[in-house]
Amino acid sequence: MALYRIALIAFLSSLSCYSAVVISPGLFPAVAGLRAIANPLSDPAWKPGTVDYLEIPAAVGGNSRPVRSLAFTPDSQFLVSAGVDKTIKIWNVEARSLIRTLSPSPAQEVGTVALTAEGQTLASGSIDGTVRLWNWKTGQLLQTLTGHSSLVTSVAFSPNGQTLASGSGDKTIRLWNVNDGSLQRTITTQQFIETLAFSPTDDMLASAGIGMKVDLWNGSTGKLIRSLGRYTGVIYAIAFSPDGQSLAFSPDANADNPSLEQNTLRLWNLRGEQIGQPLKGHTDYIDAIAFSPTGQTLVSGSLDKTVKVWNVQTGMLIPGTAIQEYLKDDRRILAIAYRPDGKAFAVSSGDGSIKIFISRE
User: N or C: which end of the chain has fewer CB within 10 A?
Assistant: First the structure.
């Protein structure tokens, strides 16, 4: 119960203050190891294996607020952000401009967003327990899905875009028919759900939260396939590799499990076997994880106010990124989204900003 209260308070506090973010076209800070250029996404001079450019969409106004969730459109041209100003914002990435704002009614803080693989439909989850489906291109609200009795912490689409999974603090996962908004089934779990992810290759659904494990479900039948590991803390983020063969997550450790190394990333195959050694480097909880489209790189963000970029094959940090040094004055990292073309990834932090790092593998 104490863990439940801590996680819920942390989530609510992160949703307590957020304001509109405006992308500033001329803002290119002078940071060691980073280069300011006119068009970073099309510059042919980038070297493989580096992350060496930072663009900052800056929060304006007196009170910046956290951006809780990020998602790129499949064509990599637009970025969706959601937070506690009770809106969803659509950004043109290369133009660095806001093109649309979606406003749920009644106004509620938005904690999570996801896009279908074809990119037409956007799902959002709110603190009042509702899930909404949008046509983000027109701004039309398509469906409002109700049934959760607590905040919706995570939403995820199946690869074919026909099923939407929503996870909640009510310890359930609901599977919805995207076409008509009907509830297909409810999965009752033993933990406050913090995060969900569908495999990119089939209907396997992974869930985790305030509990002892990562659960793998059949996303069509709702049946439990297996559980990975047994932990006593909180798992805030999970991510499937692009080939669907492995899963990354970071288990918390506490006094009940002192032997578990804290703040490490772990890779598991879907047979329930840990792959290699834990990835060490963070000094606080890991709140966000994303694989690059090739699966060669894994990016993690933490409450220690850093973003780290890992070589998946070696389990080592990629040198020379300069990301840790730049982010040291920001608050905790809340969300990470990799651009589908692999050229960049976006990071949101507790100060309300969204930062775009240029990456060429």
Answer: N
Q: What residue ranges in 146-259 does DSSP mark as E strands?
A: 152-157, 163-168, 172-177, 183-188, 192-198, 204-210, 214-218, 224-228, 235-240, 246-251
- Do strands 316-317 and 307-311 pair parallel, antiparallel, or not at all (unpaired)? antiparallel
Q: What share of the chain is helix, strand, coil (3-state, %, to 5)?
A: 5, 45, 50
- Measured between alpha carbons, how far is 56 from 347 in angstroms, rounded to an integer? 10
Residue in the structure block whose two tokens are 């060691």: 32
Least confident of 50-54, 147-151, 209-213, 303-307: 50-54
- Residue 356 · residue 91 · CB < 8 Å: no
Cα 295 to Cα 54, 241, 332: the distances in Å are 22, 6, 25
Region for residue 303 given its phi and psi (left: phi exceeds 0; alpha: psi -120 to 50; beta: otherwise) = alpha
DSSP 202: S
- pTM, whole model, 2 decimals? 0.82
Domain boundaries, the chain: 2-360
Residue appearing with tokens 């976006």: 346
Domain 2-360 -> CATH class: mainly beta
Q: Which string of DSSP letters, residue by residue, matches 319-342?
A: TT--HHHHGGGS--EEEEEE-TTS
| pLDDT per position as a tens digit, 275-297 | 988 898 888 888 899 999 999 99
DSSP 3-state of 6? helix
